[in-house]
Design goal:
Chains A, B, C, D: Keywords: Lyase. The structure is a homotetramer. Chain A is mainly alpha-helical. Chain A is built from 19 helices and 4 strands.
Chain lengths: 464, 464, 464, 464
């Protein structure tokens, strides 16, 4: 309790995501990389015995972290420390072929990529889940007329399901980017100190095909289809930058969605679930604050801010590699994933418990309808032969007058009366009655939701 | 001369890119959108005459900007101003059907997308050109041994063509992202005030298929294959954010590449072209400064900084749209494209005139070779039966000693002697001679370059 | 019309700010720097004639920009081009002593500082004006009870003047930072190629006091009190970074303030001025959109995004200077000032025409009062001997119940009844009546406003 | 080992800084705030007994974190959980007056400010220490001639002490900003739910002077001189933004300084200390990599990226407060301080063990001198009556020629010969010999260092 506790760890993120970026995951991956290196080298004809392989294989999980720490204090070199600790377990025979022809970047860079891949898969599954939840929500509320807002001013009618489909559209953007990243993702492979596979020229007697085989075969053993053909000591840090872009983009969606929820909760139209004993405010117990949405927005701001560090690193790597990426990479990539994980957990929680106050939504619609239907009135009037631009100007002036009256205390919206009395609109009471029907005034919102889900969402969810 | 002049305009960007973001391009596109709207509406059965269409069609190019200005002073509304000015030309008959069922966002958002698409195409062609240039450069220098640097310290040998292939790899990242964006790009379409195609429900007698047809047919007339099925008043601002991400990513590549060039020019290994009368410095005329590379790095910093504005806008759009995107969008998107355009022009200029000082490169290699071949010595010694970890420690200590001597004035690198004299290395003079051959010490660099170009670059360039 | 037009120039910024960053201002400043250099050199004993000085002095304003362009095409060096053009006017005699001992950075860096200083002064005067306007606004509305919002949920009462004082507090932060920057601002001075005053050692026969005198005397002639004692070729780019920080900070205030206004305009409590013929929306003429506030928020996002470029430049300047600052500096500093200038113009416009709808504000207060006064009820009950924690829990439960009822269609807020009926609150009707008085429920808001203006604002405005 | 471990905690930051942001520090501060609240309330006449105070006072340190956790699981409200746990210890008598009139923000916001203040003090002491170290370094090397670099090209001579004084100048910028922030820093104070001191109007019978006294007296008890006169529920988040600006600015200095060191280590002129058993690279044992400098640069990138989150939060706080600051504040502020703390520890380590390779520096100077002294040659020639512009052009052409020769294998720099042979330079061998003296070519570098330390640095360090 006497040190900083990162709240992503103590409060917000899932155990699964925390594990991916844990020492345990990282260093067992190193051992898997060492073991599989030897295995593939043996397959390609290097003189490595089954006994050596077995001795490596059986000590993948049993890391003695205290011993590692001692070695690191001595060498001030993380890889050397783990190498010695592993070799101590695997024995002197295995020690001879351990780390053969490779350098730190083989372990570090490939492990980073493996962690990122696992983290992306976890994000993908949560994103799919959220998309499914919002799909249900959108279908359920596709016909529920509600006030739309532009400039935060009432503007025509939409439906709640249409609005939530807009959030879905944002998430589809993110999902497509995720698939793009994953389908292009490569293993860094085993390419030596500066990426030229120098040491393998020696080991494989100048046989480039063998060096390539080592690279791709090892990638496959570690779960990758492809390997970068071109690396320096490291894979291009542009990849990390693209990961932070993706996570920032997803954070932008989360920020936008929860801003909308916070606004609707202000209108009392929507409400986050409120636990029985939950205390909204120590001083104002009546309040129902959208605290999960606010937390999502807060985490999103953090994730978005990390984005620039990815670009800064990629842009300032010098020649075959400089180490001014390392400390920052240990902070920005894991925390951007943890914060995104936390945001997705919260969004799921919000939508699984959200309350829709239909009566309030209906009341809001009814009160504002005369105002927001001026476009329809205009359309009808134009259809009846009126001049659009002239009537547009008239309706603008009438609206202003009515508004003034309301501000001065009038309790009734007199707009309809003014229009009926103005013959240039060529409108009858019957025309107006037809116009003032909420179901008639949501445009094709419901159809759009159905069409969108059928054509865009469902193909994505198929087989998920 | 008494107002700020944006140097992207006066100094750096191409006329072609400046035109895409010009008033001329923008407002003729508006007129095309108005004309094609009427055209497709007619095709779908709306009562619009050929005469009305013709009157719109023939006034697409002849914008009277002074008249527009007058209307804008009056209405304080950009679209209204252009609408009136266009209608004045097209006549009262056409005026009646102009802008039928649409709102400002139809013009603004679709035009933004059209500008972005044109700008992406221009960037693509310049990027392809740069990739071709770097492909030639890489092939030409694929065997030219040069010192590699990690931590900005000499580290083994690479080849110049291998290094430039790393730059190619960065650009391939960007190219793939560009293709991804373009293949997913959609038209915003014609969907009314809040995206529900409200006005078209009326116009098309509740026929959703007709509203969809209007949307997609219009998109095709304006050069798009697809249309967003789900929009609010606007297309999702996440798209703009993704554009700024892409341009930032490309800027990161440009920054990294030119940093490398600047460092190589420091070593005198590479040199930007120097015009006959060019003055490097008013005070230090002997200097050859890599000013184009520096300018690219400078423009890249600007482009990278704009990235955050895209995310900020997307994250803070409220409900069906707020206008706090507009002024920023007029600044960040065009300028990010202009700065990228300028950077690509400069990179092309740099690589088409770059000078490679082979003798200097060779000298550097020769001087440092004994040091940088310690890994090979280690490999050979290990192969001859030595213990890798013990010898690694010894070679480290010897290297330190030799380095100390050199710092104290020694003129010869005594490392080889020390190693030959230490029997635990099990190495002969012949072993060492074999090791100290530059061509033997570039690993598979040349093969990698060939393989990379054949398998990755050439398929991309095919048909370009 | 066939090139990109920067809207800061064509639409948003003032002529005064555009002039500060114009070629005219910049290059006449160069000539002033050249002239004053010679003048101070003469004062310090260098052999320069009055005739030479006069020839320089009389050609400060008459820049032949076409001639400059020709020279720049030839030399590809901006300073050389202007030097030749100036010398052509000043004659061969003056030419000999022109630019004596200095380098490009003398002109460029000092001019940048002079432009920044002028721009800061312009911002200061506009900021002072805005502070005065908000001071009046705060005093005028210091007693006007209005709903406060936390989490965007109704939360107790505040006053409009108190809320606007919060905006003032933000601007005071910015004002203090501005004063801090200006009081620490130094001239870069005249220090030669790498800042060591090399050439002046020769000119002044190794007399350091003379070199120092040249530096400070020249600074004073150019309007600065102080000169950096320590520069490389340039002044530390951290200064530029601090300017962008300041402008970003001010943008943050502007964004926060206008977000608040946009929210209040949503509530119809405040309203931006709406010109007679202004069109809010082509499709929804009744709407009154807070477009100036939205524009301020939009410009603020742009300014904030530029901030990172300042830090990136400062962090990546290598050794005595690299030129990867230049192109970016020509874009980020001027545009950050222009966007800030535009935002201040708009804020002034907003507050000079803002409409306060008191009746609406009062209605909102009346409707929500029973809910928001639960803390006061709690205080009174505690004072009457109740247990705070127990009653807090009870009031929470009652509030939830009442809220449920309201959502189910109840038209009256039953909270007060429930509390009066619960004896553990120990409250009488009289107690409640005392509590339900708006003027009694704004806390010390009015006093705070008075105190704040007297103690903090007025001392700042004194002598302004 | 199965969760993410933040390396700032496990590897980089000091115990002292980690403690400031620990739960222990935070929650004992809450109790101090509760206790002192009661104490000052009593002093101002509220009926609070000594016994109640004593019961609060003696349980400040003994936090039962398990109990707190239980309450938090129940209430889902951090403050309530700690309130109950504290009251359980302090007893029912004290419970009645605990948290009297205050809300969560009283604890949270004031504690944030207290943590920031303590963290700033810790940074200040480390910054002072670093300034002292660099002061010594600068004095020691003020006369050591070394090549200056502009555009990363050799450019005249400077001294090592002059270069390190440039770093000092950067740090002085940061130090001044730190002092500015600290001198303006205020306590948030005790102002109730929305900042209007509502509850204290009741408690103090409408006596504003008493409410003000409570505010300022409490501030003083908690170590602050001033209190914000104007707050909403929270202090203005612009303050946090200014903290992140400061830490980013300091990171920019650290990045710039260590970039310079990395370049100099590349030149072998400077060298970070290398521990006896330290392993530079598992594959390239001879290398001496500037890994501490690289780590500083890496941490700096992280800190700089966090800056934007501060601005984003401040700009998007709505009305009297929204909670979308909280989660982000728990991540960005502590980590920016921890990363800065780590960078200062590393910088101190670097400079306390840095090795200056004087012989190498001297060799570099000797080799490049003929080239870099062209300005001096030009000055002398001008003094002897030559035309500056003509000779400038000539020397440029000669330099290019000589450079070409060197690139083609020439081993001697022929520039001086060419100049002596060209009579228009009017220079003798004796002139040239005078020019080619390193000590004569460092300008006033040494004087500047002395002057700067005496006039700028020492006054700052006085009494430190």
């Amino acid at each position: 309790m006497d040190q900083y506790i990162n709240p992503l760890k103590s409060r917000y993120a899932s155990k699964a995501m925390l594990y991916i970026f844990s020492p345990k995951f990282k260093y067992t991956t190193w051992r898997k990389l060492w073991y599989n290196l030897a295995l593939v080298q043996k397959e390609l004809g290097i003189d490595i015995s089954n006994n050596q392989l077995n001795n490596l294989s059986k000590h993948i999980e049993d890391i003695d972290f205290e011993l590692v720490e001692k070695y690191e204090a001595k060498f001030k070199h993380e890889v050397m420390a783990h190498l010695y600790a592993y070799a101590d377990l695997a024995g002197d025979d295995a020690r001879k072929i351990l780390h053969l022809g490779v350098t730190s970047a083989y372990l570090m860079d490939n492990t980073d990529l493996i962690q990122i891949k696992e983290a992306l898969l976890l994000i993908e599954s949560k994103l799919i889940k959220l998309i499914k939840t919002l799909r249900e929500f959108s279908i359920k509320h596709k016909d529920l007329a509600t006030l739309a807002y532009t400039h935060l001013q009432e503007a025509q009618l939409t439906t709640l399901g249409k609005r939530s489909s807009l959030w879905l559209q944002s998430l589809i953007f993110d999902f497509q980017e995720l698939k793009f990243i994953m389908s292009n993702m490569c293993f860094r492979g085993v390419k030596g100190t500066i990426g030229n596979q120098n040491s393998f020229k020696e080991l494989f007697a100048s046989n480039f095909e063998k060096a390539k085989a080592l690279d791709i075969n090892l990638a496959k053993k570690m779960g990758f289809d492809k390997v970068y053909k071109m690396t320096s000591q490291t894979y291009d840090r542009k990849f990390d930058s693209s990961i932070l872009n993706f996570l920032s983009n997803l954070a932008q969606s989360a920020h936008k969605i929860t801003n909308d929820i916070r606004f609707m909760q202000h209108l009392k139209e929507l409400e986050e679930h409120f636990a029985e004993h939950q205390i909204g405010s120590s001083a104002m117990p009546y309040k129902k604050n959208p605290i999960y949405s606010e937390r999502v927005a807060s985490l999103a701001k953090f994730t978005m801010s990390l984005q620039s560090s990815g670009g800064f690193i990629a842009a300032t790597q010098w020649l075959e590699r400089t180490l001014d990426d390392s400390a920052c990479k240990r902070l920005n990539i894991p925390q951007a994933f943890l914060a995104t994980d936390a945001a997705l957990i919260l969004l799921d929680k919000i939508f699984n418990n959200i309350r829709v106050n239909k009566k309030i939504i209906e009341n809001h619609v009814k009160t504002e309808m005369p105002f927001i239907l001026t476009e329809d009135i205009l359309m009808k009037a134009t259809k009846n032969g009126g001049d659009r631009q002239i009537l547009h100007e008239k309706i603008r002036i009438y609206s202003m007058q009515v508004r003034e009256n309301l501000y001065s205390g009038a309790t009734e919206n007199g707009l309809i009366k003014l229009i009926l009395n103005d013959k240039s609109f060529r409108l009858t009471s019957k025309d107006i009655d037809e116009i003032l029907n909420p179901n008639e005034n949501i445009g094709f919102a419901s159809y759009q939701v159905e069409d969108f889900i059928k054509e865009i969402i469902d193909p994505i969810l198929k087989n998920k």
